[in-house]
Write a structure and sequence with these properties.
- This protein has 153 residues and is mainly alpha-helical.
- It folds into two domains: 61 residues, no CATH class; 61 residues, no CATH class.
- Helices cover 46% and strands 0% of the residues.
- The chain is built from three helices and no strands.
Length: 153
């Protein structure tokens, strides 16, 4: 078997020398034992799509493993496209729900701040009610003290 590095691209086709397709370094992860729990990067998906274009151009492509026949590809491409669209729709729904939730949080927080100020204005700054809602009573604040000026010799 020839070394894959010996093949060069032909300008007229996707094939290398001697009618053997080259194995470009763009696809180092083919049939790898990677963790299938992790998402593929957009670059990996694009590289896979580019590889399918190359495979479709191979005359007489007939894999010994029937799982990799080109007739099995259209449902996989459709599932990839549908799941991508579904994911985009659900991400938009999550973003909308996040915006609604944030608005509700701020409305609630603004109410609490207003209610605290209402307690302070109704009962006064030195009341125990103002202290109950988190304010420091005016009578309990430290009195400002003057710093002694250093004497100049």
């Amino acid at each position: 078997m020839a070394n894959w590095n010996e093949f060069t691209w032909n300008e007229n086709s996707l094939w290398g020398e001697a009618g053997v397709p080259p194995c470009p370094p763009l696809f180092p992860y083919l049939m790898s034992a990677e963790d299938h729990a992790k998402r593929l990067t957009p670059k990996q998906i694009k590289d896979d799509q580019d590889m399918i274009v190359i495979i479709k151009e191979i005359p007489g492509y007939a894999p010994s493993n029937k799982d990799f026949e080109l007739s099995k590809l259209p449902p996989l491409e459709a599932a990839l496209e549908a799941s991508g669209q579904d994911e985009v729709k659900k991400e938009a729904a999550v973003a909308t729900a996040r915006d609604v939730s944030r608005a509700a949080e701020w409305a609630y927080h603004d109410f609490v701040l207003g209610a605290r100020q209402a307690v302070k204005s109704q009962f006064g700054e030195n009341s125990t009610q103002a202290q109950d809602v988190g304010f420091v009573r005016k009578s309990e604040r430290a009195k400002p003290t003057r710093k002694a000026k250093p004497s100049t010799p």
